[in-house]
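hey
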């Protein structure tokens, strides 16, 4: 979380403040040491801002999550009927 969002020790913004796009490959295997990591990412993707410690900051980097799927393309794009 320090590298991605904000490093409280160095008081420097992380990668979301330096890049336009953050790409995560093989997302099925991602794990976070910081138990709040997923919530910080969800809040950032919803609002464009994040909080670490007392600091609240904004950034504009997009996030892309890449991974394999086990379904066929046809089943994924099939319209849902109710």
């Amino acid at each position: 979380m320090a590298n991605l969002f904000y490093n409280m020790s160095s008081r420097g913004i992380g990668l979301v403040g330096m890049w336009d796009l953050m790409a995560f490959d093989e997302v099925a295997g991602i794990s976070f040491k910081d138990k709040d990591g997923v919530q910080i990412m969800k809040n950032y993707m919803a609002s464009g801002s994040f909080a670490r410690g007392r600091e609240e900051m904004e950034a504009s980097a997009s996030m892309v999550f890449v991974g394999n799927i086990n379904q066929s393309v046809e089943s994924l794009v099939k319209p849902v009927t109710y």
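The chain has two helices and six strands. Strands lie at 6-7, 12-13, 21-25, 49-52, 55-58, 62-66.
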